[in-house]
Design brief:
Two copies of one chain form a homodimer. Chain A is α+β, with helices and mostly antiparallel strands. The first copy, chain A, is built from twelve helices and ten strands. In chain A, the strands form three sheets. Chain A has a five-stranded antiparallel beta sheet with strand order 7-3-10-9-8, with helices on both faces. In chain A, strands 4-5-6 form a three-stranded antiparallel beta sheet, with helices on one face. A two-stranded antiparallel ribbon of chain A has the order 1-2. The structure holds a DNA duplex.
Chain lengths: ~325, ~325
DNA sequence: AGTAGCACTCGACATCGATGAGTGCCAGCA
DNA sequence: TGCTGGCACTCATCGATGTCGAGTGCTACT
């Protein structure tokens, strides 16, 4: 669809814009990247490419700004090239290996690290339930007909939520309920436990079956809302980027970062696909129109973990991807 | 120290600045607040007050900006006046009462609510340990010589941390250890448990005494770092305030919000004093030079809870205080 | 098809003057 | 002594104006 030369021009414009932060004109492209063509030729091609939706202009007679579509071409081309490792990778790995205090503080630390070295926003998420083996379920009576439900997952992740029962529960009733749920849940992921417990009535004891089902329903709604635990590190970093000097853009990004749900959705997609994902500008939802998000999955003892970087459209995709991959790698070693 | 008239002028300048966002000049003050005095008189007084450190000028011949010192006088004067309730208080109370899903999500919801109605940053913190009765202690083996330590506090707050032992532990050894710690800890706050378990050796069984002490030490360091669980809501709000159009200021605030430790320190002071605290501009640490923080303690079944608002120097102290107090009140009812 | 040249557009930047809010100071008045 | 009016001065803001340079579109030429 694109000629060889058109492709080169798109890549050059994107590259130059990422490098310098300023829209590239035909002269620059001709001098720096396509010495064989005169500026006038480039101009004609650029004009065509603008019609095709790869470039936009701030005003008649400014250089060309790449659109999301151009970035997409650029990123795809990066992905095909053999990736070289970043020199700083080793330092990062050392830093991560020296931390070993449980998955949650580790991930929180990693997001801050990612944010610091890239100057973008570091993101990490771990699936708190759906596909991770359950290690223990426990009820702590809170008085009256409510109790605290604790679920410990295999990697050491703890999920807790308040549940209420149709009637007051004595502590030993709760213990018995926990024992029954444990006998089913142990070593199984939630997705299985849910269906098994739903049919628990076959076991006989009507009373507990009923309680189990009600509890399961409450757990389920709570967990659907918080299926991923999301960590964010270094949101302040993007303030220093020239791309976010505009307060309105900042506001959009920050409001997204406070909406755990939206982030969880993006993470979910990456986790199920199991491959790196780069979503650029308009490919994202509303608030992230001006941003790109790079996400890489990490395989950690059965838990779905995802690391990511949120940066401006003109983020350094090549470096971001390298860093994320090497951090994900050392995370996998650590867990 | 200040004459009656000087005090009036200070209050008027602060009030006018909070209201309009622009430095007030002598003419305005004379016309709006001190009709009895001519602008010239006000000028002379203002000049004196500037020397005394209550005002500063952006440039020779701009109106006077109140300094932290002037805000302090203003806030002290507000506190003495009888406080009238805000009309929106009822709505807030209704909103809070309708939520009842455990302390953590409640606080998280409250911070967002505070942020939304005031356009400042809502803050909430709850002391996770030191002075709250412990309800249950539990170990979950994580394989090898490490385990997950779960501590459930009276209000339903869960604290968990990874602990490691000098040797591999069998699950039943861990259970026995938990049983022993529970027998001491149940119904007591951590501050007591710490000293009791430290002397646990008298009980006899050397092995467990040693394990207890080692565990205690690890819990202690972990808890010293995370003694308060801090919630933040609506950081995006301050972006729309004219006071934070300057990116540098924003950066300072955001970097503080990411530092849980610093916030915890402020909260701690408020919690132990048990009274409302307003810290203004320079009274705060470095990053908050341009901000004020209002904190109110809430008494919730033995747990130290603190609610707060972080806003610009010229925040509406009167309204902020009223809102915080009524929210704190309904929080106390809810728990 | 590719190139060179030329006119045109538009943002960035500096300059200039007018305006208006606000100050400091001084002399006069109760 | 304390207050007031008057006056000169300062400084930010705003709009008009002009210049500069980067970059384009178009046309004619090879």
């Amino acid at each position: 669809m694109l000629t060889e030369r058109q492709l080169e021009i798109v890549l050059a414009v994107v590259y130059e814009y990422i490098r310098s932060g300023e829209p590239a004109g035909s002269r620059t492209i001709s001098k720096k990247y396509l010495r064989g063509c005169s500026p006038a030729t480039i101009r004609n091609e650029m004009s065509d490419l603008e019609e095709l939706g790869f470039f936009s202009q701030l005003h008649m007679s400014s250089g060309r700004l790449p659109t999301s579509r151009a970035y997409r071409v650029y990123v795809d081309s990066i992905m095909q090239r053999k990736r070289q490792d970043v020199s700083e990778a080793d330092i990062l790995k050392g830093d991560i290996r020296s931390q070993k205090v449980g998955i949650e503080s580790l991930l929180s630390h990693v997001t801050q690290l990612l944010g610091r070295v890239t100057n973008y926003v570091g993101v990490a998420a771990v699936s708190s339930l759906e596909n991770t083996e359950i290690q223990k379920v426990n009820f702590i009576p809170l008085g009256g007909s409510t109790a605290l439900l604790l679920i410990v997952l295999k990697g050491g992740l703890v999920h807790h939520t308040n549940v209420s029962f149709p009637c007051d529960m004595r502590p030993d009733t709760l213990d018995e309920l926990a024992r029954r749920i444990n006998s089913v849940a142990l070593g199984r992921p939630w997705s299985q436990v849910r269906t098994i417990l739903h049919d628990y009535v076959v076991e006989g004891l009507e009373h507990y079956s009923e309680l189990c089902r009600s509890t399961i329903a409450q757990m389920d709604t709570s967990l659907r809302e918080h299926n991923y635990r999301v960590f964010i590190g270094g949101a302040k970093n993007i303030l220093s980027l020239p791309d976010f000097q505009d307060i309105a853009k900042l506001q959009a990004v920050l409001s997204l970062l406070e909406e755990e749900k939206a982030l969880a959705d993006m993470v979910e997609k990456c986790a199920v696909s199991g491959t790196m994902s780069v979503t650029i500008g308009e490919e994202n939802q509303e608030e992230l129109r001006e941003c790109s998000m790079v996400l890489v999955p990490a395989v950690t003892s059965g838990q779905r973990t995802v690391l990511g970087l949120l940066g401006p459209l003109r983020m350094d995709y090549e470096r971001s991807i390298s860093i994320l991959e090497s951090v994900a790698e050392s995370l996998e070693e650590s867990l």
